[in-house]
Specification:
266 residues, alpha/beta, 8-stranded mixed β-sheet, 6-stranded mixed β-sheet
Length: 266
């Protein structure tokens, strides 16, 4: 019997118009009636997740920043792990010295710091996540706070090169692709799989009695860690090939379709 359902947001819970479809919403709200917990797992900040929860009537725990910051259903911090500010500063300096065509985003707690809010890439990101950034630098982070994530919005054809250089020069952090144009940088050991395990331990639940949905490379470890990992039909083919269960895409209620099938099986 499955006890918990974990779901990524972009490309998974949301369709290509960045909304939860009515069928998927009803399937998720129906989990509570079955005594099954629902958890949102995302690379987004809490402020980029809360609007989705309010619009759809979801009251659930949130794993944000791909596992660096976990909140319970009341918004209380359950767990956090971030990189030290000097390390984040070193990474930003490296990227700017290399003059890659990208814009960086620094996240600390629920604070979102960017170099230029007028940058079209930031304007677009603000529109998608329905949250507001503020202009600043790594020095804008409060001295006692950690950096939970650095997000890079890149040119698609440069992503492989930037990812490779970051992994070669900064093996002490976790760099992972979350979309064709997005690279996420977190402290070493931070990933969605570890966050899922932490939450299961917190609830004294068996991770083998969980389901997870995801569509991209930063979801891979999570899908492999749970009892039943489900790749979305819009996931890259090399991800789909790794999993027994592949559902419909995010524009055709992939979550609802697979939940109905899996929960019938028990």
């Amino acid at each position: 019997m499955y006890k918990i359902v974990f779901s990524d947001i972009d490309g998974t819970l949301l369709n290509s118009r960045h909304v939860v479809t009515p069928m998927t919403r009803e399937a998720i709200l129906g989990l509570e009636k079955r005594g099954i917990r629902f958890v949102i797992v995302s690379a987004r900040s809490p402020s980029g997740i809360f609007p989705i929860m309010r619009k759809n009537g979801f009251r659930c725990p949130v794993i944000s920043y791909s596992g660096a910051y976990i909140l319970d259903e009341d918004g209380t911090v359950v767990y956090q792990k971030g990189m030290a500010q000097p390390k984040a500063k070193e990474i930003i300096s490296f990227l700017e010295t290399k003059k890659f065509s990208l814009t960086w985003n620094i996240f600390s707690g629920d604070d979102w710091i960017v170099k230029d809010r007028k940058d079209p890439r930031i304007v677009r990101e603000e529109g998608i996540v329905e949250a507001c950034a503020r202009e600043g630098s790594i020095d804008s982070v409060l001295p006692q706070e950690k950096v939970h994530k650095i997000l890079l919005i890149c040119e698609e054809d440069q992503v492989p090169e930037i990812e490779m250089q970051l992994k070669e020069n900064f093996p002490e952090v976790n760099t992972v692709r979350s979309s064709p144009i997005l690279l996420e940088i977190m402290d070493l050991g931070v990933n969605k799989a570890e966050a899922v395990k932490i939450l299961c331990e917190h609830w004294k639940s068996d991770v083998r009695e969980t389901i997870a949905f995801g569509d991209n490379y930063n979801d891979m470890e999570m899908l492999q860690a749970v009892g039943c990992g489900v790749a979305m039909g819009n996931a890259p083919k090399d991800i789909q090939e790794k999993f027994e269960y592949v559902t419909k895409d995010n524009d055709h209620d992939g979550i609802a379709y697979m939940l109905e099938m899996l929960l019938k099986q028990g």
